[in-house]
TrEMBL record:
It comes from the Bacteria. Residues 40-184 form the Fe/B12 periplasmic-binding domain. Belongs to the bacterial solute-binding protein 8 family. InterPro entries: ABC_Transporter_SBP, ABC_transptr_periplasmic_BD, Vit_B12_bind_prot. This is ABC-type Fe3+-hydroxamate transport system substrate-binding protein. NCBIfam families: TroA_like. It comes from Prauserella shujinwangii. Pfam families: Peripla_BP_2. The keyword Cell wall biogenesis/degradation does not apply. Transmembrane segments: none annotated. The keyword Transit peptide does not apply.
Length: 260
């Protein structure tokens, strides 16, 4: 298995398919658990899928307990360039642990292509059926039917900007995101600016996911009086992996009901 390179161009010195894997990325945890059952030896506190995943927890994605990861003696750690700190990745590598870092995908095809490379090269397994089905379902963007503002946090307000996976998910379902041309991937506009987007007609739909911030019917919509909104699963909007198969149907149904 010589010559393995992760998304960032770093060597991944595996000599055989890994059998003890620690995942620091919830979406990768689900993808690996579904495709290569039994290899996960540890995961973060936020790795909620599969729901019955019974492995030791090593803290959060942003602040994992590196010593706890090392104590599990992994032969591979999975990380993401946006979710995990370079210093933690460096420390694991310095300890002799191979780390595969997935680049933060800006589109659905990029995410699925990266997953295909990870599973087929690092794990040496055929591309799973769920991957092919997700590629099929998400292949063609739909015509624009709404223009959405998509907060992912409040206090301060943070919204989807340019080149985000969640933004491309919505784009492929016919929803343009208001800040898609912004210089930042996750802009932090003031609430007055966000409300003005609706008042001036630049936005006509508020999309509120339940993660990373847990927006609810009582926490989020009240900041935008009179604005049409839809509550969606953050997992369906931002996770890349097996959830993308159901995400297409579930998100499409929620958006269709909101824009009628």
């Amino acid at each position: 298995m010589t010559g393995l390179i992760d998304d960032l161009g770093a060597d991944v010195p595996l000599t055989a398919p890994p059998r003890r894997v620690v995942s620091l990325v919830p979406a990768l945890t689900e993808a690996v658990a579904t495709t290569v059952p039994g290899v996960l030896a540890g995961a973060t506190d936020y790795c909620t899928h599969p729901p019955d995943l019974g492995v030791p927890r090593v803290g959060g994605s942003k602040y994992p307990k590196v010593d706890a990861v090392l104590d599990l003696r992994p032969d591979l750690v999975l990380a993401n360039s946006e979710e995990n700190r370079p210093g933690d990745v460096a420390r694991l590598r310095e300890a002799g642990v191979p780390v595969w870092v997935m680049a933060a995908p800006g589109t659905v095809p990029q995410a699925l292509g990266s997953l295909r490379a990870l599973l087929t090269s690092a794990f040496g397994v055929p591309a799973p059926d769920w991957l092919a089905e997700a590629e099929r379902r998400w292949a063609r963007p739909r015509p624009v039917r709404a223009r959405a503002l998509v907060p992912v946090w409040r206090k301060p307000w943070i919204v989807l900007g340019r080149d985000t996976f969640g933004g491309d998910v919505l784009h492929r379902l016919g929803v343009a995101t208001v800040y898609s041309a912004h210089a930042e991937r996750y802009p932090r506009p003031k609430i007055g600016e966000l409300r003005a987007r609706f008042a001036e007609g630049a936005a006509d739909l508020l999309v509120l996911p339940d993660e990373p911030y847990e927006f609810t019917a009582d926490d989020g919509p009240e900041a935008f009086p009179g604005v049409p909104y839809v509550l969606v699963s953050g997992r369906y909007l931002t996770w890349y992996g097996p959830s993308l198969v159901d995400a297409h149907r579930e998100l499409d149904a929620a958006i269709t009901a909101a824009v009628r």
